[in-house]
Amino acid sequence: MCNTSILLDRNRLFASDYSSTDLTPMPKLRTIILACVDARVDPAHILGLKLGEACVLRNYGGRVTQVVIDEIGALAFMSAMADESEPRPFELVLLQHTQCGAERFAHPGFQTALKAKPVWTWRMWQSRITNKVCKRISNVCEPRPRCPDK
Length: 150
Description:
5 helices, 3-stranded parallel beta sheet, globular, 11% strand
């Protein structure tokens, strides 16, 4: 069974028992957590979050980027449109961790290797990954995903 099939099975189990009657689109704690994508650092697990308590944004290194700022702005706008009363602010939690792979960006050897590779090489690599991911996602949309057994 492939990993996507495992995740789909878990989702079916979750969906069969899920009831969102008391949840709103806005987080109950009015908190946005920005965290690293590192699989070892799960904000819900680390902070004991329950479903619907916070919005979690993740990127490489848990960095504040323009995309993150835009996402927070969109959430604030959505909140202002949904709140009948005066919109309240959100709290922002930056959740970073030790032994983060993003630390490699500061390593002189990594910097040299990155500068030595032409930009088109990185874009070509990104394109290959994106095409593979899109192909994989399209398989999920089929009635029965076909994945090779591992």
